[in-house]
Amino acid sequence: MKMETVNPKKGVYPATKDYVHAMKVTGAASMLFISGTMGLDETGLAPKTIDEQLSLVWSNIRCILANAEMNTDNIVRTTSYLRDTKYAKKNENARVAALEGRRIPTTTIVAETLTPKWLIEIEVIAAV
After folding, report:
1. DSSP letters of 22-54?
2. Is-above-0.85 flag for pTM?
3. Fold category of 17-127 in CATH
4. Residue 68: predicted pLDDT
């Protein structure tokens, strides 16, 4: 599989340090679409802080990827749903750390979650 970032130099606003406009994937043998995954522990409980939930959400994503014989290197896109805009920078930092600085297409949306205790939810597309 080959992954190639697509960042036009003209005709669209510039990409930022943690963002690319698109990812072209060729030769992929399989794709994995991960549902919105929350920062919940194994019993389904949400810790109180965004830092704890971000740690758990990425742990949960890694677990799901591993069960599909993939890892974070296979992630080609994320969509984050935040309960509050004040979590945006921490979410960005957690994503950059989880991907070890690799830039991918990403979208962040602020939305009311199904329960106020859920502060973050992340959807992932991965390919191998």
Report:
1. EEEEES-S-EEEEEEEES--TTSPPPSSHHHHH
2. yes
3. 60s Ribosomal Protein L30; Chain: A; (3.30.1330)
4. 96
